[in-house]
Amino acid sequence: MRGIHYLSKLKAANIPPELLEKGQNRVIDASLTLIRERAKLKGELLRALGGVKASPTLLGVPLGHNSSFLQGPAFAPPRIREAIWCGSTNSSTEEGKELNDPRVLTDVGDVPVQEIRDCGVDDDRLMSVVSESVKLVMEEDPLRPLVLGGDHSISFPVVRAVSEKLGGPVDILHLDAHPDIYHCFEGNKYSHASSFARIMEGGYARRLLQVGIRSITKEGREQGKRFGKLGEGVKGVYISIDVDCLDPAFAPGVSHIEPGGLSFRDVLNNLHNLQADVVAADVVEFNPQRDTVDGMTGMVAAKLVRELAAKISK
Ligand SMILES: [Mn+2]
Prior knowledge:
Pathway: Nitrogen metabolism; urea cycle; L-ornithine and urea from L-arginine: step 1/1. Keywords: Arginine metabolism, Hydrolase, Manganese, Metal-binding. Its EC number is 3.5.3.1. The chain is an alpha/beta fold. The protein has one domain: 3-Layer(aba) Sandwich (Arginase, Chain A), CATH 3.40.800.10. Helices cover 37% and strands 14% of the residues. It has a seven-stranded parallel beta sheet with strand order 2-1-3-7-6-4-5, with helices on both faces. Helix 5 packs parallel to helix 6 and helix 8 packs parallel to helix 9. The longest helix has 33 residues. The protein starts with 16 loop residues before the first helix and ends with a helix. The model has no long low-confidence stretch (mean pLDDT 93). Bound molecules: manganese (II) ion. The site of manganese (II) ion has 7 residues, from loops. Manganese (II) ion (MN) binds next to loops.
């Protein structure tokens, strides 16, 4: 995607930088306004309905450019929504919650990642916009963010916002084939392979419990190993699910196919057995460009979101 970045190649040195900066600020303000107003409306409705303490709220972050390989996860959020509401299955979760009930699942839309980048906004600022969007959701009791990625780089700005908003670190349950704790990957500190290094060094999480890891280098092993009961003595538990934690037999539509993974039932058992206050969650790395023609991985990602919604809602 070129956008305004392309101006430098056109030698547009005569364009005043303030002109670009002011325009970028307006676009970012407009983007945040739509999320803020939708979150406000959903929060007001849920508080008027009453009897609800935690309502999972979808926030899409269609960002794929921090992938080291393919960028298809940028196209995932609309595919996941489509599969959540696909008529081939009903709207009940496995433990009997009703997704049609706005107390169980609501939505504030997507952070317009491509539109913001198209204006020449860099990643420092873009990541702040993602964090700000998550905070706008959390501003409205009882909404809790259920974030649709996107590649795994989005977990850093999301967890940062959750921790800053709650005023302390969380514990993280991280399901993935990969540890994603490279200090820097290919020179990119925001790489999808470095998100948990940024989270841990920022103090946004106390514990990181990784499940499903099967593609780990020596550096990865050395960066790991610290663990009691998840969520005790912290502000709550954050769940991050990389779809590639699953064996590719269950979820072929991912960028990094890594055989020997978890079954869908293994993942659901992990979720259902977790006894903790889940404050927010994400589902990342679904790549629709690698999915089967019938959209099988989209349905898998959607079911992960549905079951996470059941886990968060109360
Ligand atoms: Mn992964």
